[in-house]
Amino acid sequence: MKSGLVLLLGLALVASCAAAEDAPCSYIVQGGDSLYSIAQRYGLGTDAVQKANPQLDPKTLIIRAGDVIALPCAGNATSGSSPLDLLSRRSDLSILFKAALAAGDEFIKTLNDTKLTATIFAPNDTYFEGLLEELNKTAAELLQDKPLLKDILAYHVVPGEALSLDDLDNKANLTTLLDGEFLIVNKPKDVVRLVTTSEQKIRVDNKELEAGNAIVHTVRGVLVPATAPIGDAVAPQDECERTVKEGDTLSNIAKEAGTTVDDLLKLNNLTDANFLKLGAQLVLFDSCI
Ligand SMILES: *[C@@H]1O[C@H](CO)[C@@H](O)[C@H](O)[C@H]1NC(C)=O
Ligand SMILES: *[C@@H]1O[C@H](CO)[C@@H](O)[C@H](O)[C@H]1NC(C)=O
Ligand SMILES: *[C@@H]1O[C@H](CO)[C@@H](O)[C@H](O)[C@H]1NC(C)=O
Ligand SMILES: *[C@@H]1O[C@H](CO)[C@@H](O)[C@H](O)[C@H]1NC(C)=O
Ligand SMILES: *[C@@H]1O[C@H](CO)[C@@H](O)[C@H](O)[C@H]1NC(C)=O
Ligand SMILES: *[C@@H]1O[C@H](CO)[C@@H](O)[C@H](O)[C@H]1NC(C)=O
């Protein structure tokens, strides 16, 4: 009897630790929730939850059903029961999570389906922030633009097949959820890139995440279809590399490629913008490395 009780207590302890580790990074507030009840549910301190949400009024801590709040989380999940579940458990994919919710019920339903068979490309928060900078928009402004979000997100989903990195064959033509818009796989050697209809070349990371029946690949840029109203804002990439020719300057190369001198310096480990070696191969974009 006594050992049974100890065992029960032991189980309760394990359960509460597991709950704390299991907190998602992005949580959708439900009716009747308070910051305190959410913190309790995941074995977190209310202070820690408040700190993760500086947008909340510190006096009232008011939250509304449907709001997305951040929770302290491990943030490195490699699998989830559905794509939406996986996104909620990744601290680096929080903008994509919010964008999926803002894109509307149909899209939420698609990504929340544990049986969805699909290949999904996921740009992390750094790349969304880069796009926002190019668009001169805030995240809040982007999240209000539902038609744009729907188009962009649909372009990141290839329905029908869960393709691993090995399955992404050179020159494969992937049909996305966005009508009439496709992605071409570019895989000359081991590196896999996606060529968009707006002529970006976006690197696919060497890491696969599981989401129910779907496979999620992180990618080094937001995929923008040619038909999106922001198609003009993204710089098309003809090449990933460029040989320095007679008469080149870093600023003319940057201008030609649609990037900046600073980015070229960083990407190529150069310290002096005025010293370019004739014949040197410059990498032009982050997504090319
Ligand atoms: C995530 O990170 C935690 C520690 O921060 C570690 O214990 C856990 O194993 C990691 N999980 C994965 C799937 O890498
Ligand atoms: C996004 O991925 C890039 C490249 O893998 C990495 O340098 C960056 O830190 C990541 N961003 C976040 C928010 O994790
Ligand atoms: C996703 O599905 C789960 C389980 O079916 C449900 O509890 C949850 O409310 C759904 N999430 C959204 C955002 O619809
Ligand atoms: C960016 O937008 C803000 C406010 O909408 C505006 O004041 C600013 O001039 C814009 N900057 C550029 C570079 O377009
Ligand atoms: C990819 O497939 C679509 C639809 O079948 C087609 O319209 C498009 O021309 C193809 N693109 C390339 C580069 O083959
Ligand atoms: C720049 O330096 C980093 C770290 O030393 C290295 O990993 C990277 O490959 C270098 N990039 C180029 C383009 O040489």
UniProtKB/TrEMBL annotation:
Domain FAS1: 80-223
UniProt keyword annotation of Lipid metabolism present: no
Domain LysM, chain residue ranges per copy: 25-71, 240-284
Source organism, top-level taxon: Eukaryota
CDD domains: LysM (cd00118)
Segment forming the signal sequence: 1-19
A GO term, aspect molecular function: lytic endotransglycosylase activity
PANTHER family per UniProt: LYSM DOMAIN-CONTAINING GPI-ANCHORED PROTEIN 2, MEMBRANE-BOUND LYTIC MUREIN TRANSGLYCOSYLASE D
PROSITE patterns (alphabetical): FAS1 (PS50213), LYSM (PS51782), PROKAR_LIPOPROTEIN (PS51257)
Database matches in Pfam families: Fasciclin, LysM
Keyword Endoplasmic reticulum: no
Protein name: Beta-Ig-H3 fasciclin
Species of origin: Chlorella sorokiniana
InterPro entries: FAS1_dom_sf (IPR036378), FAS1_domain (IPR000782), LysM (IPR018392), LysM_dom_sf (IPR036779)
Keyword annotations of the record: Signal
